[in-house]
Specification:
- The chain has 2 domains: about 45 residues, no CATH class; about 130 residues, Jelly Rolls.
- About 5% of the residues lie in helices and about 40% in strands.
- It is built from 1 helix and 15 strands; from the N terminus they run αβββββββββββββββ.
- The longest helix is centred in the N-terminal third of the chain and has 7 residues.
- It is globular.
- The two termini are about 30 Å apart.
- The model has no long low-confidence stretch (mean pLDDT about 95).
Length: about 210
């Protein structure tokens, strides 16, 4: 991503650790999550937060840390979610050590696509998602001709390879899939933390022209 940061694309910083500018709760109220040492952490019961910035096709980077919860199991073990466009959840969970990840484990596109492999780190360690999102496509009559698509890397390892969505996932911000949407981070009542969140708006198609040079 160094070339992007050098100006090939414009990087939009969503969270740099200094404050909650550019974020609200999904009802528009001020963010009630905790902020300390450049990190934002879910304050259980305050609700999901959304970015003011909206997007269609994008490259998205998110770093997260699940809490250490040695006595918890399953969906109670550091649960949160990264909702691309507020509509497509990529699960956040401490799934470290599970040989075959499933539809609800870390990295899953929730209840639609299980990760190809499980590179999840233990609770207490920082992890990263790098996500390439291709928004749904529509014809001139407004009919969807191609649902959204996701390519996802967890900790630098490919876990979804251009998978096609099967509609929105559970708990979305809305269902207006033809419109741009924000990033939404989920309050699932666990103390999951986030830092260094940014995106790059991507062009939806390249040129169809060719001029020899």
């Amino acid at each position: 991503m160094e070339s992007m940061q050098a100006g090939l694309y414009d990087v939009v910083t969503l969270f740099d650790g200094t404050g909650f500018e550019g974020w609200t709760h999904k009802d528009g109220s001020a963010v009630g999550w905790d902020l300390a040492d450049g990190v934002m952490t879910v304050k259980p019961g305050t609700g999901n937060i959304v970015s003011v910035e909206t997007y269609r096709d994008c490259f998205l980077h998110v770093e997260f840390r699940c809490p250490e919860m040695p006595d918890a199991t399953g969906q109670h073990k550091g649960n949160s979610g990264v909702y691309v466009q507020g509509r497509y959840e990529i699960q956040v969970l401490d799934s470290s050590g599970w040989e075959v990840p499933g539809l609800g484990d870390c990295g899953a596109i929730y209840n639609q696509h299980a990760p190809l492999v499980n590179p999840c780190k233990p609770g207490g360690e920082w992890q990263s998602y790098d996500i390439i999102f291709r928004a749904p496509r529509f014809d001139d009559a407004g009919e969807m001709i191609d649902d959204g698509r996701l390519t996802v890397f967890l900790n630098g390892v490919l876990i979804h390879n251009n998978v096609e969505m099967q509609g929105i996932t559970g708990g979305p911000l809305d269902d207006r899939v033809a419109e741009p949407g924000p990033l939404m981070l989920q309050d699932h009542r666990d103390l999951v933390s986030y830092r260094n969140v940014w995106l790059v708006h991507l062009p939806e198609e390249g040129s169809s022209e060719y001029e020899p040079r």
